[in-house]
Specification:
The complex is a heterodimer. Chain A contains four helices and nine strands. By secondary structure, chain A is an alpha+beta fold. Chain A has a single domain, classed as GHMP Kinase, N-terminal domain (Ribosomal Protein S5, domain 2). Classes of the chains: A alpha+beta, B alpha+beta.
């Protein structure tokens, strides 16, 4: 089965339809939703708030704690066992590392900012959706950030380079597949997350990064508009 | 250069060129002035600053806040300030009365009591010292406490307190607004509810112009019932 075009009819550099909204969790200090195709992420930010246990406190600056959670009914296959797993622990960690470079928590020593990312339904690209949602939620929470963070996955199926792989592409049978989730600070173009599943050549990776950057520019616009929309009425 | 009074998101370029100066909530990178947070851009002469629209309360020296007593120690009280940090009030700042050595401090302020106090000092590590010596600083008995967005407190108070005085007069309630977003309301139960409704309305429509008139109308209409 040769891979000539995408199964879902998208162009190779076309993302799934995106929807974003800010302020979806009323009781949180900041919150956001980010839907890309059938992958939905909700992020809620609490804090800066008191941090316990005390040994986790950093007297120099506040710390960031991320939690990534796929809901039991979220995947298309088997039920996801609730609670943390090796996978969710890793993704929580990389999400934290992807968001920290933009955040300035120097003003909040000994405190914590908690980010909870929940995914009610997923179809690949969930860590990227989670990072996009979390960065909007952090901005909504009024924290000091020098930029937003946008994330998208790029990859290679057979010999084709493509943007925003969905599950059918990520698990395409009998051909080599590479999946590269990236997160970028859109204004400075700096990369905060770069992971890879599969094998890829260097020049292909460079090409993918360029494709990713283009996709990220349009994600940034969507995030920006979503944030402005919530506060739009404030404009007098 | 960006328009005055427009919403900016973190990382957004507000102005290019060395003629403008970065104010609060912004930073300079080369020629550019960039937003450091989500906020409303205000151009004031040559400087651009960002007025925050969201976020938790950050304790500042001189603020009058409403706190809850969360612990009582040997020489003072620990208070919850509705921020990430708790405040400490020492015995000598608590009251003008004489407190005997070894006295039981709970007879002055007990756990769970709400008090109005003023921040005297905030250290770099966000240790907060508060005092209750000053006009209007006291323990709050009865009434009810509501929580609002601390960024909207200036609107609730109004210019020279015009808004809060209006609610007080209309509802016959005693109201204390803490800078930290806690508000104490005391009066007839129905009037308390009306005051809360009015405050929630201000919070929701804080961006509208002519808000004072609107709230006045709202209060008059609902008082008659």
């Amino acid at each position: 089965m040769a891979y000539k075009e995408r199964l879902n009819g998208r162009k190779f550099d076309e993302m799934r339809p995106i929807e974003a909204k800010v302020g979806v969790v009323k009781r949180a200090d900041g919150s956001a939703m980010f839907k890309i195709g059938n992958t939905w992420a909700y992020a809620a930010v609490y804090g800066p708030r008191n941090l316990h246990p005390k040994f986790l406190q950093d007297p120099q600056k506040g710390i960031l704690r991320c939690s990534y959670n796929m809901m039991p009914f979220s995947s298309s296959g088997e039920r996801v066992r609730p609670g943390g797993s090796r996978r969710s622990k890793e993704i929580s960690l990389v999400t934290e590392k992807a968001l920290l470079p933009v955040l300035n928590l120097d003003e909040y020593p000994n405190s914590v900012v908690d980010v909870f990312i929940e995914l009610p339904q997923t179809e690949a690209g969930s860590r990227c959706a989670g990072i996009c949602a979390a960065s909007m939620a952090l901005a909504d929470a009024g924290l000091e950030m020098k930029d937003l963070v946008c994330a998208v996955s790029v990859g290679k199926v057979a010999d084709k380079l493509l943007v925003d792989l969905d599950y059918s592409e990520e698990s395409y049978p009998d051909v080599p597949v590479a999946d590269v989730p990236i997160a970028i600070m859109p204004n400075s173009g700096k990369v905060t997350l770069l992971q890879m599943d599969g094998e890829i050549k260097k020049d292909e990776l460079m090409k993918l990064l360029e494709m990713g950057k283009k996709a990220i520019a349009s994600i940034y616009e969507i995030q920006k508009n979503a944030l402005k929309e919530k506060y739009h009425e404030v404009e007098v | 250069m960006i328009e005055d009074k427009s919403i900016c998101v973190p990382g957004e370029v507000l102005a290019i060129g060395m003629d403008t100066l970065p104010g609060a909530g912004t930073y300079r990178e080369g020629e550019k002035i960039i937003a450091n947070r989500l906020g409303l851009a205000v151009i004031d002469g040559r400087t651009i600053k960002l007025v925050p629209l969201s976020g938790r309360y950050i304790p500042k020296t001189g603020d009058t806040i409403i706190c809850k007593v969360i612990d009582v120690g040997f020489n003072g009280w620990r208070l919850d300030t509705n921020s990430a940090y708790s405040a400490m009030m020492s015995m000598k700042d608590a009251t003008s009365e004489f407190i005997a050595r070894g006295a039981n401090l709970t007879q002055y302020y007990d756990l769970g009591d709400f008090i109005v106090c003023k921040i005297v000092n905030v250290t770099s590590q966000k240790l907060i010292d508060v005092t209750m010596k000053g006009p209007g600083l006291r323990k709050l008995d009865g009434g009810r406490i509501i929580e609002v967005d601390p960024n909207k407190v200036p609107r609730i108070i109004g210019k020279q307190g015009s808004m809060v005085v209006m609610i007080k007069d209309a509802t016959n309630c005693n109201i204390v607004v803490g800078q930290n977003g806690l508000i104490w309301i005391y009066g007839e139960p129905m009037n308390e509810l009306l005051a809360i409704q009015a405050i929630r309305k201000i919070e929701k429509e804080s961006h509208m112009s002519g808000l004072t008139e609107k709230i006045k109308e709202f209060l008059e209409k609902n008082r008659k019932k």
